[in-house]
Each structure stands twice: as C-alpha cells, then as structure tokens.
Amino acid sequence: ALEPICNFFNGILENAWVAKENCQRPQEGLTQDESASIHLYTMQFDGSPSLFYVLNRTLRAENRQELKPWFSFLKLFLTALYKLPSRGSIVWRGVRDEDLSSKYPKGAKIVWWGVSSCTANVEVLKNNQFLGTTGLRTIFSIEC
After folding, report:
1. CA distance 32 to 117
2. Which of 14, 13, 15, 18 is nearest to 2 (CA)?
3. What pLDDT sits at residue 112?
4. Which terminus of the chain is less hemmed in, N or C, by CB atoms within 10 Å?
5. What DSSP assignment string belongs to 15-33?
C-alpha cells in the first residue's frame, strides 16, 4: 500500500516497520496492517512532512488526479477506520488563528475532504498544543 507514495517521504518504510512492530496485537478486529496504517498516519516523520500532512493536503487539492498514488493506502486506512466502533456523540475540532464562522454557518451540514483529528472532551482544546485559551480561534461541534 505504501509503494506508490514512497517518493513523497524520507524513511517511510522505516516508519512503517515501527508502526507494524507497535501493532503486534491489534484490537477491534483489525489486521496488523490495518492497525499499522492508523499508527503510521499519526506518526511524526523526521526530516520530511508527516503522512497525515501530505495526505490531507492531497485530499483537499482541487486536482483529484493527485489522489491516485494514495488509493492503496486509503483503502487500507479507511477499511481500518470503518472497523472501529462509532461514537454516536458530539466531538470537537479546533482551528487556531482563524475565524471560520462565515465559511461554516452554524447548523450547516459540511463535508470535509481531509481526515480531521477531534476530541470527545472540549477541555482538551484549551491545551496550548491545540488551541490554547487566547487569540483568534474557531471551535467546531461535530455530531457523529
């Protein structure tokens, strides 16, 4: 699943090996490769952009042809995500340094093309690693 995207990263095969080593006993009915795809998505890469950054940039690109090299990885990754239990609750997503209220009206149904990390605990967003408590910010309340 990684061969078509190897040239986008330095050391992705080494990171994939680490991800598989860390996913020896997957949960939720996932295969080791499926579990490793989620782990790899969350990893920071030394010396090159992380997989999550490049994938999300590509998912948001206007030229849909740019996604072709990602098809194998996306199939593995999305299959893994679909196996995870659904929360059926409100989750929260924050964006720092932007007021997006005019772009995303309250109550509107929105489709995001990227994969977005969220939290079930809105208090997590107060951490400076995420939104902090000062400055311009947008907080999304998402029904899932």
Report:
1. 22
2. 13
3. 84
4. C
5. HHHHHHHTTSS--TT--HH
The token duo for 59 is 């998912």
Dihedral sign for Cα 38, 40, 45, 51, please. Answer: negative
Q: How many CA atoms lie within 13 A of 52 on its CB side?
A: 12
DSSP 2: -
Q: Which pLDDT score is estimated for 136?
A: 93
**Taking the CB of residue 94, how many other CB atoms lie within 10 A of it?**
19
The distance of Cα 144 from the centroid of its chain, to the nearest Å, equals: 16
Tens digit of each residue's pLDDT (9 = 90 or more) over 122-136:
999 999 888 988 999
Counting as low any pLDDT under 70, the low residues of the chain are: none
